[in-house]
Amino acid sequence: MSSTDSHRYRRGLEILQKVENTGTPSIVTSLKGLAPDLATLAVSFVYGEIYTRPHLGLPERQLITVAILAALGNAKPQLKFHVAGALNVGCARHEVVESMLHLAVYAGFPAALNGVFAVQEVFRDCGMPDSDAGAPQPAFVPGAGGRFDAGWSALRKVDGHAGEEIIAALADIAPDLGRFIIEFGFGDIYTRPGLGLLQRELITVAALAAMGTAAPQLRVHMHGLLNVGGNRDQLVETLIHVAAYAGFPAALNGMSIAGEILAERGMN
Predict the structure, then answer these.
(1) Closest alpha carbon to 197 in 207, 181, 186
(2) Structural domain total, the chain
(3) Which of 26, 62, 99, 154 is most buried (CB neighbours < 10 A)?
(4) 159 and 259 share a domain?
């Protein structure tokens, strides 16, 4: 191993030790006999090069990672590892749970339920009771318009004109779907206080980019991330992070859309 490679490995090992809260990360010991090079590459690249980049902190990266893995639904052991990692780097229990609830909108209820059950297993393994793990209740008090008015206000704040266009396009073919988006997606979910709007949009962009099946919606939520206070660097960094957990094609496809969005907004 060259001195440069050795430096990247040591730097990655330090980050991984924080995430796993151990002096000897499990990936190193478990792959020692079978595929030690895979462990070395994971430590050096994922943690030594990606996790050490600026613009996203460890708590943000862990919430994004949890969202990606839960949305993909094909890596429960890694999902549980990163749920524990999120707690180790300072994420609150309710933030982890709320991230799973948020995915019900973008990855569906099965993914959200499976994610919550994985989170529950981690909490129980850590000796944490279920009773105080949930996210706070919705902060808004429905007025005359109830969920619809609350959701419409949230949609306009997050997605702006792009979100309004989606609802308008559904008016003739499936107006109830538009209503569900407003009332459930934004009225029930986005108004919950368990996560901030920027956290929700980072999670949404990461999950949609990782799934790779909803480019128009990914475009809308890249605008949304920027609308709620996110910046160019956070958007780009989120997509670079996706490469580690959903592969380079997913990250490249997302980055292509991001380039168009940033050009439209004069942010390149």
Answers:
(1) 186
(2) 3
(3) 99
(4) no
Tell me what percent of the residues of the chain surpass a pLDDT of 70: 94
Tokens standing for residue 150: 């609350």
Residue range of the domain that includes 23? 1-52
The upper half-sphere exposure of residue 131, i.e. CA atoms within 13 Å in the direction of its Cβ, equals: 1
The span from the CA of 123 to the CA of 87, in Å, is 10
Residue of 213, 221, 203, 216 whose CA lies nearest to 249: 213
- Which residues of the chain are modeled with pLDDT < 70? 1, 132-145
Please give the full DSSP string across 120-152, using - where no structure is assigned: HHHHHHTT--STT-SPPPP-----SSHHHHHHH
pLDDT at res. 140:
45
How far apart are alpha carbons 259 and 80 in whole angstroms?
Answer: 33
* Alpha-carbon span 50 to 167, nearest angstrom: 37
Q: Which two tokens stand for residue 27?
A: 């990936």
| Number of helical (H) and strand (E) elements in the chain, helices listed first | 13, 0
Q: Same domain for 83 and 17?
A: no
Looking at the structure, tell me whether residues 132 and 199 fall in a common domain: yes
